[in-house]
Amino acid sequence: KARIGAxxxxxxxxxxxxxxxxxxxxxxxxxxxxxxxxxxxxxxxxSFLNMMDELSANWLLPLGGLACSIFVGWVWGTRHAVExxxxxxxxxxxxxxxxxxxxxxxxxxxxxSRHVLxxxxxxxxxxxxxxxxAVIIAFLHITGVIHL
Length: 148
Known about the structure:
Elements: H1 2-22, H2 31-41, H3 48-88, H4 97-101, H5 119-142
Helix pairs in contact: 3-5
């Protein structure tokens, strides 16, 4: 099974390498690839590399960001994510937001656990609600579905 997986990966990398090599100057050598990508993603460009750049910047990055925010916010859960953040950051997620903005982050009197509005809770709101909405709006704007 490992050998078959390696052969598949090598094949995909080889095909992409051949497409890159054939399209350095123009689409003259691989017009069928250009037609397929234009039909699928409504992207037209002067070379394969430029088209792959447009595809990754306009489609793959926003969709990957949306998938990450949905996974962390809803599937894995913000509680688990905050626990991971706490491993590498001393009390950063538990600092009261007002104390942080006032410059009192390390003051023990302002970092009481009774505070509700912490950086962790604010981050949880952003990752669950605001980030997916913002990424969807940006994606729809980039793809031309909505005009802002």
